[in-house]
Amino acid sequence: MPLYEHVFLARQDVSAQQVETLVEQYKGLIEGAGGSVGKIENWGLRTLAYRIKKNRKAHYTLMNITAPHAAVAEMERQMGLSEDVLRFMTFKVDELDEEPSAMMQKRDRDDRRGGGRGDRGERSGGGRPPRRGDEE
Question: Which CATH fold topology does 3-94 show?
């Protein structure tokens, strides 16, 4: 059976629990058609590069799917009809990666650092380096 990686974006005003409900709905559709869903990663609420349907943020979710093409096509059709799904993209792959994706590895690295952005500390001296002729 073909292997797919599928990413979809849900609207920002949808709760995390509603995103989980969407995932379970699409997972049930795939399994009902004889396929299976492996790894599911919720990448959380992230800022979009540009507005999509008046949304500045979206809930990102990755699914690894093993299913016939007809099942994936039906899932995509239903996502296209759903008002909660902003965008989706499906890639056919040669093998599925069971390790955490690059997005999850980045999040783990940020968590270990202690918060990510904004933790660089304050510079002394008013924010700019001294220039020649400045009094110290």
Answer: Alpha-Beta Plaits (3.30.70)
